[in-house]
Model the fold of this input.
Amino acid sequence: MDFGAFVPQGWRMDLVGIEDRDHWETIRAVATRIEDAGYRSLWVYDHFHTVPEPTQEATYEAFTLLAALAGVTSRVRLGQMCTCHAYRPPAMLAKISANIDVISGGRLDLGIGAGWYQQEFEAYNYSFPKPSVRIAELREAVEIIEKMWVEDEVNYDGTYYRVNGAINRPKPLQEPRPPLWIAGGGEKLTLRLVAEKADYANFAANPATFARKSAILDQHCDNIGRDPGEIVRSVHLEVLVGETDAEVHTIAERAGEQRSISGEEYASRFTVGTVDQVIERLDEYAAVGCGYVIAYFPDAVWGRSLELFADRVIPHFLPPIPVRESKP
Done:
């Protein structure tokens, strides 16, 4: 497995109580810890208002934040889980993502999906059509982005989007293009699009559902003649980890307060436990073919799950280091 981690950005109420002037330093410090701990990737959410309810608490825009983080990191990859296709015209999103790929030295992963947070759509005056239409829009957006990344001048005449002679310079540094993640588990439309276009699939699912979605994706790949092994299957998990049951209880209570739920309910809904318990849970995902875990640590600002996970959980899923035989 590969592993990524989110920085705090306010969407999950993780900057509450921190002065606005201190937000950037808080986010930057967590990004540094993610890179230093050896995570493969650093992630942000693409949302404008807090969850589960919109509030007056700060929520930082994804690509503004990624551009800043590109300048204060040097090794860790940078992704969004996931960009809502409707929040930015696809040609502009191609331009933004290409710029960040160059600024970061070729470290961008582009995650994209059809969106779901209706309140945000309506608040920002974006239309929120039925799912089949949003997925059709997503398909056109992905096609435009792909063209903008590699072609000199793009023309596209779709049902929902049109581009007339669009030029995108600089191009992304990565060849042939940045990795494309498509998030969502819609079995007829979204997973068909994943099979056609994505390098990575992302499911928010328990292991049994993950296995079912993955099998359906395999079938879509078979239908179009693509090797299913070309698409890495990933999962997004909210994780808290402690060394003892007592520590787990304490941090779950505090994380629950951020969501206005009890610690007990929080622990029942998310991946919460001791090191061994979290390893056991991730083993279930590994057994059904999960190749990448993107973890959100609600205690990233005030706790140590981020480092404990990196030091004690991740090594369980790394290949053993070969032992060299000494010469006689």
Q: What stands out?
A: Residues 12 and 51 are 6 Å apart (CA to CA).
